[in-house]
Amino acid sequence: MPRCFWCTDDPLYQAYHDEEWGVPQRDAGHLFEMLLLEGAQAGLSWITVLKKRERYRQVLHGFDAERLARLSDEEIEVLMQDPGIIRNRLKLKAVRQNAQAWLKLEDPVTWLWSFVGGVPKINHFSDRSQMLAVTPEAEAMSKALKKAGFNFVGPTICYAFMQATGMVMDHTTDCDRYAQLKGS
Question: How many helices (H) and strands (E) does the chain have?
Fold first, then answer.
């Protein structure tokens, strides 16, 4: 199956590419999970986070925002000892901060999707040189998330989040998933 240039031969990466990346997501829990995972990725490769995703689901209480909003400093210190996740104190504190901010949003799904007008933005890139790391929509999302109290939500992270959750469909035109998702 022809895949996007970034997808390696790692089976986990291929499954993510083939089944999840670029598929429009409107489930609040999934969007919250992806926002936290994209923040965890900052400065790292996505495959690093993807390989740790199941452990994150275990130790972060299934990405339950209400529970994560109550993480104590002691719990964060315990998480800092877990080799199954990315042990970065600032990122782990951001989990708590972002959960608290998430819970203050009246309708996070509609609000997040509003940055693309409520419907997926379908790009028609034939080459990796056409792909962007940041867009005006991602910059606007980043600014709004920061204003709402979120952390680790820079414009590059926001664009990766938009791609991952199908707000933006960036499968290249030579990828089998492009044909499947272009009408989403």
Answer: 10, 2
